[in-house]
Amino acid sequence: MGYPRKLTRRFRAFDNFAISFTIINILSGIFSSFGFGMNAGGPRVLVFGWIGVSVMVLFVGASMAEIASAYPTSGALYFSAGKLAKRHQGAWSWYTGWLNFVGQVGGTAATDYAAATFIQSFVAMQWSSYQPTRQQTVLITAAILLIQALANTYTVRLVAVVNRISVWWLLVGLVVIVTALVSVPSHHQSPSFVLHSVNNTGFGSAFYAGLLGLLVTSWTFTGFDGSFHMSEETVQATVNAPRGIVRSIGFSALTGLMLMLALVYAVTDYTKEAAADAPPVQILIDALGMTTAKVLLLVVIGAMLFCGLANMTSNTRQIFAFSRDGAMPGSRLWHSVSPRTRTPVKAVWLAAVCALVLVVPGWWSKVAFTAVVSINVVGLFLAYGVPIFLRLRLREFRPGPWHLGRWGRPVAALAVLWIGLSNVLFMLPQASPITAQSFNYAPIALGVVLLIATVWWFATARRRFKGPVSYGSPDEVAAMDLI
């Protein structure tokens, strides 16, 4: 790919799968967004929307995997965008890289903020006198970011071990939660309950509410580009990285459907639970009792913490690669690698600080925090879509060892179509009446990011950034290898 080797290849096939599976994290995603789906579409959209959107996301992942096999680098999306563009390679790479960067930083911030929120819910369940506040949530999030940054500082082998543990934590936790919801309650909803439709969005159209409900699945299925970003640290990356992407989506789709069905059929009082601060937690309390609910909530919190750690790891590798090509201020710092741990330590701490900067507005206003991190999903899916769109335009695309054959172009077309549709949904109003508290700030957040990137591009970047840099011929690069 034109780069000297600075990172060690210690990720095996399972490790590569584990990082994307952990970032997707069905426990974290479903428990964080289930309440939104209860009010926007109800059980019908939660279950059948999960199935339909999972298939479309699998198309996105398969197209990304094909590209990952051809361009297995830490730069991942922005690198492949620069290589696949016919013209203006620097511009395509620039915008893709910055969308990916802010999307990943927003993902780390949002995941750890959600973990802090659920930690406080657990504390309040344990000690009724405890009153959660926004300030406490920000402080807990900062502590989580500090611990995750320290974990990412000490060798990629440690991160790989933690990610292996996280996979089993997720799977065992899922089995325990689903088994409890199926076997413990004395009463479950009837089979036809899955067809029940609900519209508490404030909009008169049930169809519109159902479209919004699809976002539950889309919010969950983000971050599978983590396998792509870990390519330079994965053995046989041209095969194992794409397999990691596709397998993580497939396993998440199947296990997530099990959890979704278990929660839906365990509903006791729909109106009360849908209106709760944390609807899935209220479902656990009503169906299983307070003590069991608290134990299972600890499982969910653990999953969220693993998810945030994997998010930061992926974010760090994107920063490392983007800086290696001179696209970030202070690039020399961020793409340096510790000679002792063989990890981009400075990039780790930049990722942690940037995530903390996004969290800090939550000290004063939850709306301000929501406005900042709403760019997470929009930024990531747009970054996913750019290289897939460019691959679709490029008839002479040269695939790697893992490819879709003659299905490559049709799958890519469906992937681009879904990314376009889902991003429109992400930017539509999600509640009525529209007020400062209910306004969807995703379009504004996206507009600010694109405005800054555009001004920066035309002011200075277009003269110095031409896309991915080649450090020489294969033989010259091999002589530069630092490990």
TrEMBL record:
Annotated localization: Membrane
Family matches, as PROSITE patterns: AMINO_ACID_PERMEASE_1
Keywords, alphabetical: Membrane, Transmembrane, Transmembrane helix, Transport
InterPro entries: AA/rel_permease1, Amino_acid_permease_CS
Name of this chain's protein: Amino acid permease
A Pfam family matched in the record: AA_permease_2
Keyword Oxidoreductase: no
Ranges that cross the membrane: 17-38, 45-65, 137-155, 167-186, 206-224, 245-267, 287-310, 347-364, 370-390, 411-429, 441-459
Topology relative to the membrane: Multi-pass membrane protein
Gene3D superfamilies named in the record: Amino acid/polyamine transporter I
